[in-house]
């Protein structure tokens, strides 16, 4: 029988090779960790930052109260929107299908807006403003840097898209998606896919990349305008209920 | 290197283990919330999401 503690393990000294080995192992773990983080955590972490920034900006846009029960959406001429300067915050988008989702829409489709952790969604400066006649077109990442449009392919017909600007709440309804090459600029035409026509109605178009993590194609979601509510009325009841249901 | 760190941390083995875990968690936090986001924004182009002529 050998006593268990009779022989203390000899203390090995660190050598150049052992330290180098441990450093290389560490580097491997860090790089592997980045890949895992990017695929599994990046959108949640960076998305939370965008969500928090959007929540703050939404509060600065106007009344935080919820509209009174029975407030109807108006379908008359919406207020005139004014465009903000390039890279500035313009509006906030809510899509209840994505859960508790709110993101700031910045002006112009610059990477500075799309990649921003304060914004994340970008308005095509060539398109219409919210509620305006024509096509209100917005781009956002599918994956990475918050990935606001990760679930863009999960929208169902009739899903509502809410836009809050300093003037009003605008409500759009999702119609259909389309998969197109990156050069298909007709999707953001005043009448989507019909560049030869003049604006005849109020559309919304959301563009993101497809497939996941790939620049090869684009996933496009189209919607139509259903109505608006002045900002003083407060948040549309339906949206407030949807957000509550998701929370 | 890591064996050296283990020796530097004072106390009995369970205190060492606790300090080790706390250090590890701190490193993971800095990586996840600060280092990795910076690396992603600085070195990795996420795919373009706009439609354009080019």
UniProtKB/TrEMBL annotation, chain A:
<protein>
    <submittedName>
        <fullName>Membrane protein</fullName>
    </submittedName>
</protein>
<keyword id="KW-1133">Transmembrane helix</keyword>
<dbReference type="InterPro" id="IPR023365">
    <property type="entry name" value="Sortase_dom-sf"/>
</dbReference>
<dbReference type="GO" id="GO:0016787">
    <property type="term" value="F:hydrolase activity"/>
</dbReference>
<dbReference type="InterPro" id="IPR042003">
    <property type="entry name" value="Sortase_E"/>
</dbReference>
<feature type="transmembrane region" description="Helical">
    <location>
        <begin position="20"/>
        <end position="40"/>
    </location>
</feature>
<dbReference type="Pfam" id="PF04203">
    <property type="entry name" value="Sortase"/>
</dbReference>
<feature type="active site" description="Acyl-thioester intermediate">
    <location>
        <position position="209"/>
    </location>
</feature>
<dbReference type="InterPro" id="IPR053465">
    <property type="entry name" value="Sortase_Class_E"/>
</dbReference>
<keyword id="KW-0812">Transmembrane</keyword>
<keyword id="KW-0378">Hydrolase</keyword>
<keyword id="KW-0472">Membrane</keyword>
<feature type="active site" description="Proton donor/acceptor">
    <location>
        <position position="141"/>
    </location>
</feature>
<dbReference type="InterPro" id="IPR005754">
    <property type="entry name" value="Sortase"/>
</dbReference>
TrEMBL record, chain B:
<keyword id="KW-0472">Membrane</keyword>
<keyword id="KW-1133">Transmembrane helix</keyword>
<feature type="transmembrane region" description="Helical">
    <location>
        <begin position="13"/>
        <end position="36"/>
    </location>
</feature>
<keyword id="KW-0812">Transmembrane</keyword>
<protein>
    <submittedName>
        <fullName>Uncharacterized protein</fullName>
    </submittedName>
</protein>
